């Protein structure tokens, strides 16, 4: 029997931070948080889970990227900095240029194929190792490296197209 209360207590804050970093909106991060745990329940019915932290980060990343895709496809304005945010959740003060860069980066990330976006976020932002990401994406470490390389290359091109270069390292 899975002790969901313990899993949520241990990993919930990381799941929320992962979603919030991607979507930069409290309400959408909460939605991603809930969707993550709902999907985790379904996943646990089909698979034996050894590392809940990485499974939940992977699911949260996918849900948050999906949320961003919906936002940008609708043509909605980015939400960074809009509306009241609890000070405990607020990111450190960022210059307007950094917020603009992040909005453009999020938009670019939504244009990557799903696996490239997930591999990039999990490896480069969540700092999971390629082997761990490969296990979570049911793939090989070599395939993760390919997704990561292609994702970075496309991100560099997309960011250069909006006049921001050399922010995504090879």
Descriptive terms for the model:
about 170 residues; single chain; mainly alpha; globular; Butyryl-CoA Dehydrogenase, subunit A, domain 3
Task: Write a structural description.
The protein has 170 residues and is mostly helical. The chain has a single domain, classed as Up-down Bundle (Butyryl-CoA Dehydrogenase, subunit A, domain 3). The protein has helices at 4-23, 26-46, 52-73, 96-109, 114-125, 130-136, 141-161. α1 crosses α2 (26-46), α5 crosses α7 and α6 packs across α7. The N and C termini lie far apart (44 Å).
Fold blueprint:
Layout: H1 4-23, H2 26-46, H3 52-73, H4 96-109, H5 114-125, H6 130-136, H7 141-161
Helix pairs in contact: 1-2, 1-3, 2-3, 3-5, 5-7, 6-7
Number of strands: 0
Number of helices: 7
Low-pLDDT sequence parts: 79-90
Give me the strand/helix succession: HHHHHHH
Calculate Rg over CA atoms. Answer: 16 Å
Number of domains: 1
Largest sheet: none
- The CATH class assignment is Mainly Alpha
Structural class: mainly alpha
Summarize the amount of helix as a percent range.
55-70%
**Secondary-structure arrangement, i.e. CATH architecture:** Up-down Bundle
Proportion of beta-strand residues: under 5%
Determine the mean pLDDT.
85
First-to-last CA distance: 44 Å
> Within the CATH hierarchy, at the fold level, what is the topology?
Butyryl-CoA Dehydrogenase, subunit A, domain 3
Q: What sort of overall outline do the alpha carbons produce when their principal axes are compared? A: globular
